[in-house]
């Protein structure tokens, strides 16, 4: 397949420094109340997004800002789950803007250490969404995020740039309250089956063709961030649904469970390899990871 923009920076020391500051650093301990709750279940978080937005947003990054796309989409999924499950939740009207996330992770959190090249670290983004928050894909006069701009992301991600000071109070209106390191398929499965998406950072690549079950075979190496947003632990071939940020047409082949274009299923053992690289986090808007009963079966699934 042709080269695609990626942008994950593998820096274990930077991850360790961030994780040491988190109130609930490790998902296995933070979410002990929901351990094994996803066993034998199917959870499809993209269906919540489709209910709220009317369709599923397909990202197509143009520079190495994949970490902001994985986390930005994760914020959208998390917010839409909240809207559907909790009537008192704030309504979601726009997608999350990726450009401010990219800048905040690289500059406000990373202090410009990465220079002028592309890329970011998952843990820096985890800290950014907690400490600085997010902006929506709309206008904040005079700033306009209605359309994704890789050029703007690159400009704001430079060491002396970052998020404009006047936008930071607006970002803090929408924060992710909890992030915790996920290191196994079972942890990610349990997180997703309770409504918590998992942006995944790894160097695992995949074939650009899905098999008859919608899975893509692990192949090659990508320094990349994507989003785990679905789990199927029920049909004898356990795996997670992974959303990429290369548009709808980078991969072809059969789909199932109404999965969006541009997505693919990942076998559990491959998920384990990816998550053991220790830069993937479950996201929650709660003070912790409470058990959340998701509808079963999903009445809006389209096979």
**Morphology call:** globular
The CATH superfamily title: Cysteine proteinases
Q: Give Rg in angstroms.
A: 17 Å
Give the end-to-end Cα distance, rounded to a whole number of Å.
Answer: 27 Å
Number of strands: 9
Query: Uncertain regions: pLDDT < 50 for 5+ in a row?
Result: 297-303
Q: Please estimate the helix content.
A: 25-40%
Description:
The structure is a single chain. This protein has 303 residues and is α+β, with helices and mostly antiparallel strands. It is 29% helix and 18% strand. A hairpin with a 2-residue loop joins strand 2 and strand 3 (143-144). Helix 4 crosses helix 5. The longest helix has 20 residues, at 66-85.
Summarize it.
This protein is α+β, with helices and mostly antiparallel strands and 303 residues long. Helix content is 29%, strand content 18%.
